[in-house]
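On clarity, I found the account of how folds are encoded harder to follow than it need be. What matters is that the chain and its backbone geometry are given together, residue for residue. For the editor and my fellow referees, an illustration may be useful. For illustration, here is how one protein appears when written out as sequence plus structure tokens:

___
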Amino acid sequence: MSTIQIALITLAVMLLLGMPIFMTLVIAATVSLLFGASGLPLSLVHNALFEGINIFTLLAIPCFVVAGALMEYGNITNQIINIAKMICGRAYGGLGITTILACTFFAAISGSGPGTVAAVGTLMVPAMVKNGYSRDYAAAAASSGGTIGIMIPPSNPMIIYAILGNLSVTAMFTAGFLPGFFVAACMMSTAYFIARRKGFKGDADMPPFDLKTFIRVCFFSKSFFSMMTPVIILGSIYSGYATPVEASVVAIMYALFVGFVVNRSLRPKHLYAALLEGVMTCGTVIIIVGSSTLFGKILTYEQAPLMLANAIFQFTHNPTVVLLMIIALLYLLGMFMETLSTLIILVPVLLPVIIQLGIDPIHFGVILVLTNETALLTPPLGVNIFVSSRIAGISVERNALAVLPYVATLTFCVLTITFFPAIATWLPKVLGYGV
């Protein structure tokens, strides 16, 4: 039995036994080294593990998580929601649209799907229920809006993909802009049509939209500092003044300034909670990336990507067909594996095939992240629906049915970006980040 066969069989057995993903990868790699015919030394284990965690770019993830938590505690999230309500709060489904719009803004702070659902949904779901919206609609809008959190930069999955694929993090962030806003527009349209059909009107207490009031609130009140948050974070990256890691530290400093000085909402206990959240996230990411580096090296040494490419080329050489096959695989895996695990296992194997087919790796990265957005809504694992179900006080089954229109919308977005790659690649190339 070959080394690859031993590794894959061990991997499957460990996953079926419910072993944590990092342990699954390490055990599969170690067993394949002990009993395979590769001749690779066991010292590869600790060398690869250290190499995997010794990546400077990984520091951006816990820093962005801490910044997002500080901004939530510092009342920035609430101010963003209030501005979003001024824009569309009175329309049919206005509060649902507001939820998705607020998630879009908050995504440019947190980079996390479930984190976006928790931050925005905690405020908006009760507001929707109070205004006569069904709990199903409220929960579905919150969980669906939260998916945008992993597409709009800064995005944690995009950072991981860029590291695994040896690509520019800034290029991936840039590529996420147009697809992210395209997805947000499609989601808001879905929320509007569902609300129109069910007769869910906007917030009756909201005054009609007034441009002078809107400008005053956005530019001449405390909310100005909240609205400037994504501009400062992303502007520091794209202007060249800061790398993504440095920008994540800028985000923390700005969050502290707004929370303590402007809004005066932050307290010492909030600092502890935000740092704890960052540490927990950092620990999870680092240990999984380290173990995936080990597993990926064994697959590379054994030429697994080349074998996969040859198998695919026997079936088709059409890049679009290959992408559709990969999307179908990702939809299936997304029901059972969380985003980080999917990226870490598949990217080292699939990316060489993608490059060999002449597909832009940045385009592929956007498709990969977008299909994982859908995975956040598909049970049994769909993390976002668990978070929003708890907030709305409904069962996961009811929520899973309520999000089906949004799953269809996301599928439409995936296919659109697959057939029209310029949506993802145009902006990076214009700004000089293309591959």
